[in-house]
Amino acid sequence: MDFTICPAIEELKMATRRFVSEQVIPLENDPRQSSHGPDESLRLELVARARSAGLLTPHASIAMGGMGLSHVAKALVFEEAGYSWLGPTALNIHAPDEANIHLMEEVATPQQKERWLRPQVQGQARSCFAMTEPEGAGADPSMLTTTARRDGGHYVINGTKWFITGADGADYAIVMARMEDGSATMFLTDMDRPGISLERSMDAMDRCFTGGHGVLRFENLRVPAEDVLGEVGKGFRYAQVRLAPARLTHCMRWLGQARRAHDAAVAYAVRRRAFGKPLAEHEGVGFQLADNDIDLQTARLHIWHTAWLLDEGEPCSFESSRAKVVCSEALWRVVDRCVQILGGQGVTAETPVMRIFKDIRAFRIYDGPSEVHRWSIAKKIIGSHER
Question: Where are the beta strands (DSSP E) in the chain?
């Protein structure tokens, strides 16, 4: 594996770092934010700044107006963007849009791309991915209860989805529904169609996602047959096309947040004195800083390794699951230690660490809880042994 960074990508990485430092972090206390994330006016301002800096939607294909970054290049840029909780929103690489853009590039028809994808790449539109359900699909997509049936030139969709990130204010949705034969299909729909209602926004621990997390109800939603995403009956396959890279880009962005928390803890430990010397010189604190460095680098190496495999076209669901577990739990440990090092400062908004702590906890659940990924890894290990 060659992780040599070409000069152009190194330059892009540093440009992203400067942009986040100079134009994004100063907006972190902007009042245009709520418990359900930054509002649309703040999002549009951030997007405009990234567009002016030449950094908007870098992961999209060149044909769609992006930079066509490789997965390894994304790892470098996304970490820098993630240094601020507003950075991914600014660069238009936040969840769920980043993964939806990837899926649309892979599966959508040319007409669908022009209608939904191009405005999204330009930062003019947002999307949501409606799969998770209150009593059905979540970590196990096969439990879909939302149904779709053919009715002439349309499909009629009925069901309820919840914890749908970005639902409030989204322009379009990708909806997973079960067909009459038990297979699954993905559908594209504008969010203002009759039959779609946002029942409520859920109060969640995190507040970094534009549009928060919503509960959507579909009541006889009629979707034209030409708005099927990909082929009928292949929804589960397309879910994997989306989820494997999405797990990894989550890791990339949250690595930036954990690094930010670590930097704040280091600065405090060097400055703060206790018992006659700086905190950093006490072994109890110094060891925590050392463990942070180990966890950050371990996460980074897992990200780069899995990104390299994706760039090589290798099947890497096993490695994707492993990276998700390693990164989500290592980065959680980093931020938790930072709270401890900062003491009283760590549980107040005087530093960014408390905010990062609250946002990052859910990372161990998003895109599959650690336990589900461990179970998947274990099955593959056992199956390989039995063969």
Answer: 33-34, 37-38, 127-130, 147-151, 154-165, 172-178, 184-190, 196-201, 213-224, 228-229, 273-274, 277-278
The model's pTM is 0.95
363 is written with which tokens?
């990372």
Query: Are the C-beta atoms of 138 and 130 separated by less than 8 Å?
Result: no
Amino acid in the structure at residue 57: T
Strands (E), 135-234: 147-151, 154-165, 172-178, 184-190, 196-201, 213-224, 228-229
Q: How far apart are CA 183 and CA 232, in angstroms?
A: 8
Structure tokens at 116: 């939904």
**262 in Cβ contact with 296 (< 8 Å):** yes
Is 125 buried (19+), middle (13-18) or exposed (0-12) by CB count in 10 A?
middle
Q: Name which of 170, 103, 96 is nearest 132 in CA terms.
A: 96
**Reduced to 3 states, what is the DSSP secondary structure of residue 189?**
strand
pLDDT tens by residue, 296-319: 999 999 999 999 999 999 888 899
Provide mean pLDDT across the span 322-351.
97
Token pair belonging to 25: 């972090």
Which residue is listed with tokens 């942009």? 19
Beta bridge partners of 30: none
